[in-house]
Automatic annotation (TrEMBL):
Pathway: Amino-acid biosynthesis; L-tryptophan biosynthesis; L-tryptophan from chorismate: step 3/5
EC number: 5.3.1.24
Protein name per the record: N-(5'-phosphoribosyl)anthranilate isomerase
UniProt source species: Kitasatospora herbaricolor
Domain N-(5'phosphoribosyl) anthranilate isomerase (PRAI): 3-193
Record family assignment: Belongs to the TrpF family.
Length: 202
């Protein structure tokens, strides 16, 4: 199962996430207590080994800013919250970036990743990065097929239940591995990954 640890802001946290086995690490380049600048993100990306996806997170920024900041940060993927025209997605793919399309699960309940092509879908709570959970059963009996990540209020204590209920392709967490908002805990990161791997074993 694909695991993304998001909202990282120190090299130590990036190293902790990589050491714990994360498949992706996220850097928030939009309004947030976790925000880093594109230049800070580039220094963090330098600690991300080949095979681990570095993701820049945006919300409602204009396409030219997303393109500029993603290039400055040197990330391999952009995660877009908010509304964007299909042409924006196509332009970013043409730059060789992987797209993570974030949406409120309420909207996407039952949506198929087939609607999202090669992009990754992030089904999140209505307030991204809030640590708020939501009713995973809202996905109904037919969760999306394809490469989709479950997010929103996940933590070591609930991720096994969430995985069993929603059966996602991947999971994403930020608040649930912090000691306080914006301050990651290497121990919680490690525990989260351990619980995910145990849940995968069934
Ligand atoms: O993390 C943020 O502060 C943030 C701010 C604005 C837009 C997106 C943001 N995070 C996006 C993520 O991918 C989070 O990991 C995801 O929303 C889950 O967050 P959490 O419920 O805190 O685990």
């Amino acid at each position: 199962m694909f695991v993304k640890i998001c909202g990282l802001s120190t090299t130590q946290d990036v190293e902790a996430a990589v050491r714990a086995g994360a498949d992706a690490v996220g850097f928030v380049l939009t309004g947030s207590p976790r925000r880093v600048s594109p230049e800070q993100a580039r220094r963090l990306v330098a600690a991300v080994p080949e095979g681990v996806l570095s993701v820049a997170v945006f919300r409602d920024e204009p396409l030219d800013q997303v393109r500029r900041d993603a290039r400055a940060a040197g990330v391999g993927a952009v995660q877009l919250h908010g509304e964007h025209p299909a042409s924006a997605f196509a332009e970013l793919r043409d730059l060789g970036l992987t797209l993570v399309r974030a949406t409120s699960a309420a909207f996407a309940a039952g949506a198929s990743c087939g609607d999202f092509g090669e992009d990754l879908l992030l089904l999140d709570s209505p307030v991204p990065g809030s640590g708020e959970s939501w009713d995973w059963s809202a996905l109904g009996e037919a969760p999306p097929s394809g490469r989709w990540m479950l997010a929103g209020g996940l933590a070591p204590a609930n991720v096994a239940e969430a995985v069993a209920l929603a059966r996602p392709w991947g999971v994403d967490v930020s608040s649930g591995v912090e000691v306080r908002r914006g301050v990651k805990s290497p121990e919680l990161i490690e525990e989260f990954l351990r619980r995910v791997r145990a849940a995968e074993q069934g």
